[in-house]
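Long-time lurker, first post.

We've been arguing in lab meeting about whether NAP would sit comfortably in this protein at all. Half the group thinks yes, half thinks no, and nobody has a model to point at. So I'm putting the question to the forum: if I give you the sequence and the SMILES, can you give me back a predicted structure of the complex? Inputs are below. Any interpretation is welcome too.
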Amino acid sequence: MRSTLTLNNGEEMPWLGLGTYRLDSGRQARRAVGWALETGYRLFDTATLYANERFIGEALAGSGVPREELFITTKLWNSDHGFDSTLAACRRSMEELGVDYLDLYLIHWPVPGLRAESWRAMEVLLCEGLCRSVGVSNYMVEHLEELLAASSVVPAVNQVEFHPFLYQRELLEFCDSRGIHLQAYSPLARTRGFGDPVVGRVAERHGRTPAQVYLRWALQHGVSVIPKSSHPERIAENAAIFDYELGSEDMHELDSLGSGTHVSWDPTGEP
Ligand SMILES: NC(=O)c1ccc[n+]([C@@H]2O[C@H](COP(=O)([O-])OP(=O)(O)OC[C@H]3O[C@@H](n4cnc5c(N)ncnc54)[C@H](OP(=O)(O)O)[C@@H]3O)[C@@H](O)[C@H]2O)c1
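Top reply:
Settle the argument with this. Predicted structure of the protein with NAP, as tokens:
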């Protein structure tokens, strides 16, 4: 589970990380981060929006795991768009997290108006070494085309909702063709569809749980995953996905579940 992928700038990123949305207190963060580290997770995904950067930072610092072994992602919130405010927001996030660099800083949403300015600031943060990699989130093809036309820095990552019920094939192909790694948020669809008969059949065939089927399906599409859980047994279950493989028939059946179902906001609308 420590396997990593190489981003377009040569940086290594784990295939699996812990999502932290709704780990809302120091106690919750400390426990979940502790269990995840024990299991072997090294990537932690937070955001200014989640209001838990301080808790996550404290939990990581208190764990004794060296900073260089960790991969910390956080995100620029919508109200902080703009050149100067992006620089300031990134510094605030680093201060909250108690770190002197971020592994990955993402523009959380393609907010209309100032997003090009924000990306210019991301380029500066990258250049100054404050962020090892920079990327975007919830960017659809048209947002990426606009960004790529205006910048020579290609986002390392695009983090989007991705699970069998939201198989974003066209976006995945576009990102692959431009060297942008697609990372799945809500990779468990927040448990939606766990009772689906197709999911059940595939899970039974492999002696796995629906959660493990969703996560393995994403990995086999070349998409990394950041499932969130606050339970130790689920944190471990979600990590036990590197010792089996779905066959092409399984993949095909799961692909066909894609129905455009969002469990989070739909980025084609307003956030
Ligand atoms: N960039 C963005 O706009 C964006 C948007 C949404 C999310 N994210 C990131 O992606 C992460 C993951 O997405 P998410 O939190 O929305 O949803 P998710 O990971 O798809 O699902 C989390 C839910 O599934 C439950 N769960 C976890 N493992 C389970 C298992 N093995 N069996 C049964 N239930 C299980 C969790 O409950 P328990 O906690 O009770 O175990 C929680 O309710 C977030 O935490 C956040 O870091 C990013």
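For your lab meeting: The mean pLDDT is 96. Residues 19-21, 45, 108, 137-138, 159, 185-191, 211, 226-231, 234, 237-238, 264 surround NAP (CB under 6 Å). Whichever side wins, do check it experimentally.
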